[in-house]
Design a protein that fits this description.
Pseudouridine synthase; globular; four-stranded mixed β-sheet; Archaeosine Trna-guanine Transglycosylase, Chain: A, domain 4
Amino acid sequence: MTQSGILLIDKSEGPSSAQVVHQVKKLLCAKKVGHLGTLDPFASGLLLVGVNEGTKIADIFLGGVKRYQAVMSLGVETDTQDATGKVLKEQPVPAVGKTQLSSLEQKFSGDLLQVPPMFSALKKDGVRLYRLARQGKEIPREPRPIRIDALRVMQLNEHELEFEVTCSRGTYVRTLAADMGKALGCGAHLKNLRRLACDHLDVAQSIGIEELKDRHSQNVIPLVSLRSALAHLRAVTWQSRLIARLRLGQQELLGQLGARQNGENYVGILDPRGELAALARWVEDIPGGRWRLSRVFRE
């Protein structure tokens, strides 16, 4: 039986995240497989794929900080804000130098409000926005708070800029490219996109689907354990008897975790072998907040 954990896949341009998941599930004959944060088909890079119990930690990585490398084409706006869309407008590209690049980095860093694109999976009255967009409809969208922790913009040539961005959940990188194009006065769209990291997990640790197939043929599955995947979280080790009680739903035991530290949202609970047995999540359902059971993992 395939064990549980996380696969770090270097997705190529073309396939959807769902197609990659299907390939992995078919190859490993695993009971449960799911991605922990989608990548658009035209994008490449780090795709986290949970296997069996690994699917239970999706929420953590969906909310994690992501790092991307991208190229934007200046002077051309598209309806999807990327290279897959229909050209809406073309404009002359002004001279772009160090002053303009520095201005972009300053203007688009920190806490921002971003209007999500019509071509997105967000819903309006139960209908995905991209479905409405394909019907030629556009509806008002409220700006959403995002955070850009780091942004570095470089000039590739007179019509293209490359940038590397570290951003919060909910950030649309193609919208960031389009907004930077507007700030330059010529418009822009995202030419290509590559995810470099998700929290502490880096694309340098990942492998492509073909390499996964080769390793599988040698009975080697490069699963990252749940403990290693969540190494960036604080973890405590409990005795087996306490974990057994926790599995029975005795959440009052979570008081032993003590006060929340440094704004953390999750704490891992390890068994005596060092394996991840459960995750506790901080909630504010009572004054002062408390720890509640988020996930329990099979022995």
